[in-house]
Design a protein that fits this description.
The complex is a heterodimer of chains A (112) and B (112). Chain A has 112 residues and is mainly β. Chain A has strands spanning 4-7, 10-13, 19-25, 31-38, 42-51, 54-57, 65-70, 73-78, 87-94, 102-103, 107-111. In chain A, strands 2, 4, 5, 6, 9, 10 and 11 form a 7-stranded mixed β-sheet that branches. Chain A has a 4-stranded antiparallel β-sheet with strand order 1-3-8-7, with no helix packed on it. In chain A, a hairpin with a 3-residue loop joins strand 4 and strand 5. With 112 residues, chain B is mainly beta. Classes of the chains: A mainly beta (112), B mainly beta (112).
């Protein structure tokens, strides 16, 4: 089984709809991250969390919110989706501030 | 701020060719440096890393040396294979900053 899972893998939604992307991990890591990937822009950090009570904004948090329901679960919400939020979204975990992060398979989100 | 710049792609090579993907960085502290690889339809995987100047990271025939004097971490492989076709990301992490900064990615295609 995969260590970091994301659901759904693909989602098409309409402008103005609320949508939640979910991430679960079995690695036992405290740190979890949400990234957005757009062509030619690399990965940009949306939110990150170092434990259940700690949530931090990344470089592009506007229009997004997160919830850390447990050590193993970190959800990303788009309260009112807009077309320029069409992207590939990745969840990642880490057990260290300076070393590698472990990525989920991604969720491809299309907002029409 | 901290940033990573990679050579623009796409890069197309023939099998068994020599590969170099350039990566330079700007950082205020002493970063750890990483190369991640993203195969089609998958999340990012750590390919190699280096945590201090002059360290060489290596994995699967790929190598990169942490060059503080030129602020570079170029990825090299002596003989590429079709299975190396992927998107490659250079990234840095500053100790205490708790997060990664990614380059924009370089798409590599290897033709048989």
């Amino acid at each position: 089984d995969a260590d970091v899972t994301q659901t759904p893998r693909n989602r098409i939604t309409k402008t103005g709809k609320r949508i939640m992307l979910e991430c679960s991990q079995t690695k036992g890591h405290d740190r979890m991250y949400w990234y957005r990937q757009d062509p030619g822009l690399g990965l940009r950090l949306i939110y990150y969390s170092f434990d259940v009570k700690d949530i931090n904004k990344g470089e592009i948090s506007d229009g997004y919110s997160v919830s850390r329901q447990a050590q193993a679960k970190f959800s990303l919400s788009l309260e009112s989706a807009i077309p320029n939020q069409t992207a590939l979204y990745f969840c990642a975990t880490s057990d260290s501030p300076t070393y590698e992060q472990y990525f989920g398979p991604g969720t491809r989100l299309t907002v029409t | 701020g901290d940033s990573v710049t990679q050579m623009e792609g796409p890069v197309t090579l023939s099998e068994e060719a020599f590969l170099t993907i350039n990566c330079t960085y700007t950082a205020t502290g002493y970063p750890s440096l990483f190369w991640y690889v993203q195969y089609p339809g998958e999340g990012l995987q750590l390919l190699l890393k280096a945590t201090k100047a002059d360290d060489k990271g290596s994995n699967k025939g790929f190598e990169a040396t942490y060059r503080k004097e030129t602020t570079s971490f170029h990825l090299e492989k002596g003989s590429v294979q079709v299975s190396d076709s992927a998107v490659y990301f250079c990234a840095l992490s500053i100790q205490g900053a708790q997060k990664l900064v990614f380059g924009q990615g370089t798409r590599l295609t290897i033709n048989p």
